[in-house]
Write a structure and sequence with these properties.
mainly alpha; 2 domains; two-stranded antiparallel sheet; 5 helices; 58% helix; 8% strand; elongated
Length: 125
């Protein structure tokens, strides 16, 4: 690439850069820190995914965060998303499902270990 081409590419990148990041400097810094943590987790061998897949997912999440379109960004109602899964349960079981998702009862395990088991008992009279 000659000097004119290099200058043109740099100028184009500078013109596009402001639109590439939709958040504040603080949000960008937070996204960068999260990206570094995710990549470190991928390379540590503790991920449940293959290394290449894990790194690809971490990079994709970082790009979405930079665009301001990451699904779990500010303003997303995580409780609503969690309880929405209970809609698949029979009507008689939905309320108990919602209560478990929101923390009622006992919780065992972890996602990293392969699963979270939530248990509650309901006395029917």
């Amino acid at each position: 690439m000659n000097k004119i081409q290099t200058t043109a590419v740099l100028a184009a990148a500078l013109c596009l850069a402001p639109g590439a990041w939709a958040g504040t400097k603080s949000e960008l810094a937070q996204a960068q820190r999260q990206h570094q943590r995710e990549r470190a987790h991928c390379t540590s061998g503790h991920s449940q995914q293959g290394r290449a897949t894990c790194l690809k997912e971490a990079d994709a999440a970082y790009q979405e965060a930079r665009r301001g379109t990451l699904a779990n960004g500010p303003g997303i109602d995580l409780a609503k998303n969690a309880t929405r899964r209970c809609e698949a349960q029979p009507a008689a079981d939905r309320e108990a499902c919602v209560q478990r998702v929101l923390g009622a009862g006992n919780t065992e395990g972890s996602v990293e270990a392969g699963g979270v088991i939530r248990r509650s008992e309901t006395i029917v009279r």
